[in-house]
Amino acid sequence: MDIAPDVVRAARNGDRGALEELISSSYRPAFTLALRLLGNRDDAAEATQEAYIRMVRGLKRLSEDGAFRTWMFKIVSNVCMTELRKRSTRAVPVEMSTIEEADPVDIESVATSHAFRAELEDALGRLPDVYRSVVVLRDIYDLNGEETAEVLGISAGAVKVRLHRARRKLRDDLLTRFPDWESDEPKKESA
Amino acid sequence: MTDCMDVQRLVWADHDAPTVRAHLEECEECRAESRRARQLRVGLAGLQAAVVLPPAGLEPALLTLAERRRFDRARELVYHPTFRRGAAVGAAAAATAAFGIILARRMLRPDLAV
Fold this sequence. Notes:
The structure holds two protein chains of two kinds. Chain A has helices at residues 5-12, 16-38, 41-58, 68-86, 109-112, 114-126, 129-140, 145-152, 156-177, and one strand at residues 100-101.
């Protein structure tokens, strides 16, 4: 989600074209975040619409044009958390294999290999909501501890504890898929 | 001496204390755990760039919602009590001014009076 601050500024000042550009260039990552948090495409689409209504309503209050990305992620997360709190049962984790790779990060071959990322996405889907939400916001969408605590309605200390447990759960899950996952090139277990 | 269990707990919590680093230099098992923790964090961070294709109708729906919201906002402003009070005060002021002008003209030019 790369959005120029002047587009945000123009949209805030009532430029219709800029608002449309803002929406068109940000709705896919926003939908993906909602899907990761809710695990259901219909719910994610509904949450995205609600988030954009709030975005348009609140755009005038956004003081820092460069902070749109984080601000938008927080709005989506807030809408999704409200939805998750209303739920009595958990949605079945969504099949995320239809993802398209946009700007792959080539930092470490293992962490960015397709097989590892696919398993990681699946493992995320298997995490309980309380752990998935914190790891999605902190480790994927890079919200800081305070922002995550605010969105989740918990203390910064609780964020740390949940994040630690979530990572360990992911680690245990991934180790069952990659038994030799300490080398540079883990091989997926056959069978 | 730092215990392996402690070190492995710390590497998953992003701790990078000198005692942890010293232990990692000597312990292959904990180094492997540290590598796993780093690979997981890098892998998770990389997922932000991987987006899911949304339903085809979502973008048009969002654009329509945004446009409708702008109209709603304009309507809210028009029907807002402050706006309506202001409009009423403005109308009263305009009527008073018009009446004043007519009155003044009649006083200055009695021949214009009907």
